[in-house]
Amino acid sequence: MFSDRVKIVIRSGNGGNGHVSFRREKYVPNGGPDGGDGGDGGNVIFETDEGLNTLSDYRHNKKYSAKDGAEGGKRNCHGKSGEDLILKIPPGTVIKEASSGRVIADFPESHMKKVVLEGGKGGLGNQHFATSRMQAPRYAKPGTDGIELEVVLELKVIADVGLVGFPNVGKSTLLSNVTNADPKIANYHFTTLSPNLGVVDLGDSQSFVMADIPGLIEGAADGQGLGHEFLRHIERTRLIIHIVDASGCEGRDPIEDFFAINKELESYSLNIIKKPQVIAMNKVDIIPDGGEKAKEQMEKALKEKGVSADIYLMSAATSKGIKELLYGVLNKLKDIEDAPYVFEQEYFPEVSRYDDEPFNVYYDEKEGMYMVEGPRVEKMLGYTNLESEKGFVFFQKFMRENNIIEELKKIGLSQNDTVCVCGLTFEYLDDEVDDADE
Predict the structure, then answer these.
(1) Cα angle vertex 369, ends 363, 374, to 5°?
(2) Can you tell me whether residue 351 is helix, strand or coil?
(3) Can you point out the beta strands (E) in 296-397?
(4) pLDDT higher for 226 or 346?
(5) What is the pLDDT at residue 435?
(6) What is the pTM of this model?
(7) Phi and psi for 130 in degrees, rounded to 5?
(8) Which neighbouring-strand residues pair with 197?
(9) What is the pLDDT of residues 164-218, one digit of tens each?
(10) Cα dist. 269→62, 67, 112 in Å?
(11) Phi first, then psi: what are they for 11, rounded to 5°?
(12) What pLDDT digit, counting tens, does each position of 365-403 carry?
């Protein structure tokens, strides 16, 4: 089964905790701290595999986790880092954060490898916290948590040329005649339910990849009739062959069809409608004048709308005009930059990992102090050694950058007031007040 969009949960490994231990040797009864660091958690890595052309491997297993880092040991032994998780995907896959739809990573080419989620960092052992005043620290730093994220994998077909048009206008027939693809062909709408790719070989090492994008209907850009599922594949193509039924044998008007499909493309993405197009007027073998009148009418309509596109008359059934179409497309491709369209990163898991963890500030009249609470702040304290000057500076910076101090001031915090942060009490000294006194 072809699968071009799946939703899964990925999790990087937690960092191992730092260890608390002390040297215990025969002639060293009061040895110093020798607790080792915890190992880093495993990363979640995605890698493109050109042997894959579907996301169906992810349809059944919905959760993937890297390994956690091990805790540090005594005698300065470093904990083992967690094993990375490498997930193979086909070229053309885009990874998005599920709830917002923002792009995390794009993999437009073969042989690409990216870390999408970093594992948590291993905590420091107690050996790092020894000072002249604190020679036997009985604490170590915990490892930081990994990141768990629900993501959507979307496969956007990579092809030089995309065939678009209403159902039953001859796209699959053309693809089967000019490439090695073997699409199913029948006389009913939505025959093609997945994109078919084929290589057009014109000899002398001249070739390009063509994709038959499943038939579109009006309203496709709004998601009707699997519209979004199909439109996403056109974003990768460099050029569009727009096929219309010149004969009108099914009661269709080729001019109305052309502008209706272009309206859908524009509604879905401005990047798509800007792509170069050529118009292939199909089924001219059943028109008495070979389609010349239909071509003239199309040219007139394009001129009135200010649209520029080369027009070719052809018959996918008899191969008439196909050679001229293919060489015309090849020449246009030579003038188009061949770098694939790349989706820019919009979502950064490392930055966003604490966005949904609020903090709460209030004044406790019974205790006579200002209170700061919340899982976000608790985690920060777990990662911070407040006994060291560097750790305390980090704590102050965190409080300011996350607007906690600002929120406390709004409810009345002033110089020398007591602040309780997740059970730890501090006297507030306003740097701005001290600077003003000087």
Answers:
(1) 65
(2) helix
(3) 310-313, 360-364, 369-373
(4) 346
(5) 41
(6) 0.63
(7) -75, 130
(8) 211
(9) 888 777 777 888 888 765 544 333 333 345 567 778 888 888 888 888 876 555 5
(10) 30, 39, 26
(11) -140, 130
(12) 888 899 988 776 776 676 566 776 656 776 787 788 778
Dmax (CA) of the chain: 108
Q: Could you tell me the CA-to-CA distances from 197 to 164, 205, 350 in Å, in that order?
A: 13, 19, 37
State the average pLDDT over residues 127-145: 80
Please give the single-letter amino acid code of residue 94: V
Query: What single-letter amino acid sits at 418?
Result: T
Strands lying side by side in the sheet with 196-201 = 196-201, 207-212, 161-164, 239-245, 277-282, 310-313
C-alpha torsion angle, residues 168, 170, 171, 176 (rounded to 10): 120
Return d(Cα 320, Cα 333) in angstroms, integer. Answer: 22
pLDDT given for residue 192 in this prediction: 40
pLDDT tens digit string along 297-321? 999 999 999 998 999 999 988 989 9
- Judged by phi (left if over 0) then psi (alpha if -120 to 50, else beta), residue 248 lies in left
CB contact at 8 A, 74 and 51: no
The rounded distance, in Å, linking the Cα atoms of 75 and 418 is: 40
φ and ψ at residue 309, rounded to 5 degrees: -160, 140
